[in-house]
Design goal:
By secondary structure, this protein is of the alpha/beta class. It has one domain: Maf protein (Alpha-Beta Complex), CATH 3.90.950. It has six helices and five strands; from the N terminus they run αβαβαααβββα. A five-stranded mixed β-sheet has the order 2-1-3-4-5, with helices on both faces. The longest helix has 18 residues. The protein is globular and about 45 Å long. The two termini are about 15 Å apart.
Length: about 150
């Protein structure tokens, strides 16, 4: 699937960026795992805490606290901000709680949001995962790559 994504982006002269929280850079690592990825990969920002999401991405800290960083709206704002920062055609953002404990009083352990922005649309999906933290992160990476792949156009 990664090879197909690379091929599509190169052939169509499209670029991509990522904004990762729960995945901590793992999506970026996967997207840049093959030679030639510098042709389409513009960059990534890993924003693992609320203050950094606010400072780097410009998301209102009060909104993050009110909605939770693990929310559909914050996932969307992360993606929009990163797409703007990197001026990319596509952008993936991930936020969630991989476990083993709750992040805050609002979100739940295993709750994940992934946003993919394409030139034509914005898709945000939510997932509820269970199990070991490392497996939840791995699943989130796979869900994000799959969501991107299904929405290449």
């Amino acid at each position: 699937m990664i090879s197909d994504i690379h091929k599509f982006l190169v052939q169509n002269k499209k670029t991509i960026s990522t904004c990762e929280s729960i995945t901590g850079g793992a999506i970026s690592s996967k997207l840049t795992s093959k030679p030639g990825s510098s042709i389409f990969f513009k960059g990534s920002v890993v924003v693992y805490n609320d203050e950094v999401k606010s400072k780097i991405l410009g998301i209102d800290l009060k909104k993050i606290k009110k909605l939770s960083a693990v929310s559909q709206q914050i996932s969307l704002e992360m993606a929009l901000s990163a797409k703007n920062i990197f001026d990319s055609d596509y952008c993936i953002a991930t936020t969630g709680n991989a476990g083993p404990s709750n992040y805050d009083e609002i979100s739940k352990t295993g709750q994940v949001y992934i946003t993919v922005i394409t030139p034509e649309k914005i898709i945000t999906k939510d997932y509820t995962l269970s199990g070991v933290r490392s497996k939840n992160i791995e699943k989130t990476v796979n869900f994000a790559i799959d969501l991107l792949y299904k929405n290449l156009s």
